[in-house]
Amino acid sequence: MGHSYEKSKKDATKFILILAAITLLEVFVALTGKGHLFGGKFMFPGFALAGIMIIMSLYKAYLIVYEFMHMKYEVPALVKTVLLPTLLLVWAVIAFFAEGRDWQKRRDLITDKNNIEVDDPVIIRNSQTGMSEDTKVIKTQG
Amino acid sequence: MADTLTHHAPEVEEKLWEGGKSPFKVSYGKLMMWYFLLSDAFTFAGFLIAYGTLRSSMPSWPVPDFVFSIFPGGFHDTPLYFVTVMTFILLFSSFTMVRAVQEGHRENKNGVIFWMVLTILGGIAFLGSQAWEWTTLIKGEHVSVTTNPFGTHTESGIYLEGDGHNINEGDTFEAGDPYLIHQHNGEWAPLKYKVLEGKDQGETKVQSFGPKAFGALFFFITGFHGFHVFSGVIFLIIICVNVATGLYVERKNGYEMVEKIGLYWHFVDLVWVFVFLVFYLI
Fold this sequence. Notes:
- The structure holds 2 protein chains of 2 kinds.
- By secondary structure, chain A is an all-alpha fold.
- Helix content of chain A is 61%, strand content 0%.
- Chain A is built from 4 helices and no strands.
- Chain B is α+β, with helices and mostly antiparallel strands.
- Chain B has 2 domains: 34-144 and 213-281, Four Helix Bundle (Hemerythrin (Met), subunit A) (Up-down Bundle), CATH 1.20.120.80; 153-206, no CATH class.
- In chain B, the strands form 3 sheets. Chain B has a 4-stranded antiparallel beta sheet, with no helix packed on it. In chain B, strands 1-4 form a two-stranded antiparallel ribbon. A two-stranded antiparallel ribbon of chain B has the order 5-6.
- In chain B, strand 7 (192-195) and strand 8 form a beta hairpin.
- The termini of chain B are far apart.
């Protein structure tokens, strides 16, 4: 493997301590940002919180894959075949989250339209059944 | 024949893709483990992206530090403490796994067994913690795949009745404050409140249930991860028994099987980093 046993033993301890420290920092930042610590004096907006958390999590992921899973000792071609496909997920996240927000907008639009009050609607009724010809067609006078 | 081989030796080194030699300098088994993990990463990503999409499509979402705020032993108002403990258990088991692989590289059988047993115990402790968390949600708070009693207020108001837990009549709340609808004698008991601000000011309303997808997403995603941990524990036990019987001593490949299950185990930890991110931190 090209690295001594003693060295790798030290590395394992070093990286687990870094991972633990980042995890504690993440929880600390999350609780501070959401106002659970310091009496809510240092709250900050959700998107900033999410950004910090995502960066810290990606760094944790890097440490696990490169140090614990020994990705840094694999040949470059193998690293590329495993890591490059995951870049597709970057687009998937952007596209699907944008879609999600659009669903919300459309739902709001429908709710708004349902709440529009129409003055004295005239509903065309079928002369035989007395039922509305088409409940969707509501005409307003004038 | 030997002469020809010697003569062509430098060219053989360059023609990595002509068979007989791994261009990636790894065994077939290890390479396939990497590709399995890649495909598994896409499965988890699909789940987590579905969670993000549905969450971003809702005007409000259960507040994680309110939903996950109970600690074993009857402690309340301990936001994210328990899940932090769970994260540490899994991280520690990843460390013991690394140590098992390292002992394998220097063919130290007893060392491999010692660190693998600790890894197995870590995995079991994590599963136990998850079982406790699920039990709290299902039995205590009555969350199910189709029902989500965790809601978030979208307008400020004043409660017209108490729930006998921590809300009293006359308590006020702001938009964004989370709430949990309790059950009384098996019946849902959402509280009445009066809206204090906004376009519905003065109206009396009843607490509504939170986004329905929350329960299904939570149970399916943490359940799928927990199932990975469970299968990991089973494989660790099988391989640990094989180590103990001396099967891998004969193979003389530096306990490569331990390395392969190690890759899988670290991947389970890796996925937890992202489950922890999207379900608890954000």
